[in-house]
Write a sequence for this structure.
């Protein structure tokens, strides 16, 4: 059986189609278990990789969608999601039970149970971002605006900050004729 036919991956593919999007799920020959692995396998900027991080605020599971070249500030999650309580990282078994995905393949769509989500605003730098699709060898591509729409995520400007020692991707700057000085 191809990884594309596994039930968790099929849930992601069906969620894309149900949202009116194309099925962009692809199987990689290399693992995309980490953001670094995915960026290397896709030959793309690390920041274009969506890290789907599950947390628990008091007794409520939530998800943070963070750029691969950024660090999540867990302490900002309750405010971003308009929740109160202490943030903790759940056990791997809890993540699988609430999302239906194993760590390394947690997708932001096709979840077993809907979760409140916050998304890192830094994804706006990219035309296309890449997220896990239910298996460590499967990812899907999507625009930032479509990802916000299909996840119903709250865009947050203080959810994450760039990692130190990692060169962040900056889109090419196009100079306007108005300000060219000519």
């Amino acid at each position: 059986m191809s990884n594309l036919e596994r039930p968790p991956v099929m849930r992601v593919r069906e969620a894309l189609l149900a949202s009116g999007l194309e099925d962009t799920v692809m199987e990689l020959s290399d693992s995309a278990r980490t953001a670094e692995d995915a960026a290397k396998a896709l030959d793309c900027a690390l920041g274009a990789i969506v890290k789907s991080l599950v947390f628990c605020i008091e007794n409520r599971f939530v998800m943070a969608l963070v750029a691969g070249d950024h660090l999540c500030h867990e302490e900002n999650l309750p405010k971003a999601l308009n929740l109160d309580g202490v943030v903790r990282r759940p056990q791997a078994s809890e993540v699988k039970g609430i999302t239906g995905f194993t760590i390394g393949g947690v997708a932001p769509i096709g979840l077993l149970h809907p979760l409140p989500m916050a998304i890192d605003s830094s994804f706006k730098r990219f035309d296309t971002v890449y997220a896990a699709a239910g298996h460590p060898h499967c990812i899907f591509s999507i625009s930032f605006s479509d990802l916000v729409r299909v996840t119903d995520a709250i865009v947050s400007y203080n959810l994450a900050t760039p990692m130190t020692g990692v060169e962040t991707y900056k889109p090419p700057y196009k100079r306007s004729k108005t300000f060219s000085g000519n």
Summary: DSSP finds five helices and ten strands in the chain. Strands lie at 26-27, 49-57, 60-67, 70-72, 87-88, 117-120, 129-132, 138-142, 154-156, 160-162. The helical segments are 7-18, 35-42, 77-80, 92-99, 144-151. The mean pLDDT is 91.
